[in-house]
Amino acid sequence: MTMRYELLVPKILEGAAVRFPKKEIVTRVGEGTHRYTYADMFARTTRLGNALRELGVGVGDRVGTFAWNNYRHLEAYFAPSIIGAAVHTINIRLAQDDMAYIINHAGDKALLIDPDLAPLIEAIADRLPNVQHYVIMGEPDEVTTTLPGAVSYETLLAAASPEYQPQYVDEYDTMGLCYTSATTGMPKAVAYSHRAVYLHSMAAAMTDMFELSERDKVMAVVPMFHANCWGLPFVTTLVGAGQVFPGVRPDPRIICELIEQEGVTLSGGVPTIWIGVLDYLNRSGVEYDLSSLKRLVSGGSAVPLAILQAYRDRLGVEIIHAYGMTEAAPLISVNRRRSWLDSMSPQEQLELCAKQGTVAPGVETKLVDENGEEAEWDGQQRGELWFRGPWIAGEYVDDERSDETFVDGWYHTGDIASIDPDGYIQIVDRVKDMVKSGGEWISSVDLESAIMAHPEVLEAAVIAVPHPQWQERPLACVVQRSESTAQLTKETILEFIEPNFARWWLPDDVVFIDEIPKTSVGKFDKKVLRERFESHV
Ligand code: AMP
Predict the structure, then answer these.
(1) Is 441 one of the annotated active-site residues of the chain?
(2) CA-CA distance, 478 to 469, in Å (whole number)?
(3) What is the CB neighbour count within 10 angstroms for residue 93?
(4) Within a 13 Å sphere around the CA of 145, how many CA atoms are in the beta-carbon half?
(5) pLDDT in tens, 41-95
């Protein structure tokens, strides 16, 4: 028999302190940087754990974080798990009602808040009866808030014991909590066990996934409150890679500067981030040396082919497409080329990169059609993706909506896809974003990707609008590049995409808008567009 050994998140932290004490963690602060090592991070995280314990936080309690991507947030990712509590990463861009709902639903006992974000919590503080402690993540002079009893993070750490006294719990106990960025109804809570995060980290590091090692420098642009930050803080600490945090309000300039200055080898963010970076490079004309970047991970929504192409051909950077969700901690699949596909032409390789990749080892997949039958993996047949595996949620926390999504041990994603014979997933659409025209389905994702290939187009979103005869018809909402002087019209757009689609797929109309509204995690917000153009026909 092998020894029984619990897979606990504090073990990831302990390992980093012993194996990689000198490795550096860098955070952008103002126009400069804060730098320290894993040894420092371990010491401070130990103190934070002890400080939280002193405040009365213990096994089973929840600690909310309300912060940008920075080193204190990294400490807060790990400290609750040392004392058997759980970290709850709160989305700083939620509406007030949603924010109050999730803080109360999670039962957060303490909130750790970045100084500049405190006013957002002040506005709802009278609706948070369970919060006993407000901690401002800064020096004492940064505590300028009216939040009751607010203390500075650094004051707490200075007064806390430096002794590492972990409270180990069961590997199936909760170490973290993240809410979905629900587009209908209130956000739903997903709880991550220690074991799930540990195994997810091991899988994410694998060569056929993010291919991470101690030699890497990882910069998560994806917010630390979005879907567990794609697991990046955990996997990076596990393998001892360097970490780079972009700090307050990262913009394309900051992202490019950090990649160049720090020699970032892997960065991750939603496609709108990479669209924005490319646009900034085009407009500013500033040349950055981005050659350190070996992997640029894009996930959260489909990455348009034109973006993959622009990064490959103009910047020499390969975008790696990843797919997942809050419910899966979040990685399901990463797009790496299988050895037997190496002989593909450059164009075929590009088209392969636009797919969502093959599932991680350990994740089981079903593709289920409208009749409840399993669809063939032939790259044609479509179905809903179902998953199960060691890091996939089995339910939403205290939520009666669980039964619709978690059925007989399978997580039903609501994502419609095909899978090719090599196992590559191609997301067609979310069920609720598909356009149902005369009983047939049209993929908004395919249309958007084709429109965004137009050189004068910055962004495009396709939505369903109600139609008296066809039930729904596609409407394209297009943003023209700010520097473009061309006269873009409905006709030019439709002519451009016409060769790729059957006639009845083509949008009935094309509207030109200043900006595609974004969700709190930076995806195209089609709900807002649907409301705006409800009576467009
Ligand atoms: P969230 O939990 O907010 O990250 O949302 C997860 C959902 O985003 C998934 O169920 C998909 O609908 C969508 N999604 C995530 N990654 C991708 C991707 N690479 N391509 C297309 N859709 C994606």
Answers:
(1) yes
(2) 25
(3) 17
(4) 28
(5) 999 999 999 999 999 999 999 999 999 999 999 999 999 999 999 999 999 999 9
| Ligand 1 contact via 332 beta carbon (within 6 Å) | no
What's 69's DSSP letter?
A: B
Q: What share of the chain is helix, strand, coil (3-state, %, to 5)?
A: 35, 25, 40
Q: 321 by DSSP, 3-state: which?
A: strand
Q: Which of 37, 294, 366, 441 is catalytic?
A: 441
Q: What is the CA radius of gyration of the chain?
A: 23
CA of 512 to the centre of ligand 1 (A): 26
CA dihedral over 24, 30, 32, 34, signed as positive or negative: negative
Q: Is the CB of 180 under 6 A from ligand 1?
A: yes
Please write the tens of the pLDDT for every residue from 469-513. Answer: 999 999 999 999 988 888 899 999 999 999 999 999 999 999 999
Residues 6+ apart with CB under 8 A from 500: 446, 450
Q: What pLDDT, on a 0 to 100 scale, did the predictor assign at position 483?
A: 87
Q: What is the DSSP letter of 87?
A: E
Q: What is the token pair recorded at 65?
A: 């974080």
Query: Are 84 and 169 in contact, with CB atoms under 8 Å apart?
Result: yes
Instruction: Confirm if 172 and 193 have CB atoms less than 8 A apart.
Output: yes
Residue with CA at minimum distance from ligand 1 atom 5:
325
Which residue's CA lies nearest to atom 6 of ligand 1?
325
Question: pLDDT by residue (tens digit) across 417-468?
Answer: 999 999 999 999 998 899 999 988 999 999 999 999 999 999 999 999 999 9
Q: 59: how many CB neighbours lie within 10 A of its CB?
A: 11
Q: Which two tokens stand for residue 340?
A: 């037997």
C-alpha 42 to ligand 1 mean position (Å)? 33
Q: Is the CB of 227 under 6 A from ligand 1?
A: yes
Q: Which of 27, 45, 89, 180 is flagged as catalytic?
A: 180
Both tokens assigned to 425:
């997933």
- Is 237 considered catalytic here? no
Triad 145, 149, 151: Cα angle to 5°: 70
Tokens (6 digits) for 205: 């590091």
Q: Are 357 and 336 in contact (CB under 8 A)?
A: yes
Alpha carbon distance 225, 234 (integer Å): 14
Q: Is 520 near ligand 1, meaning CB less than 6 Å away? A: no
Work out which ligand 1 atom sits closest to the CA atom of 427.
21
3-state secondary structure labels for all residues of 386-398: EEECCCCCCCCCC
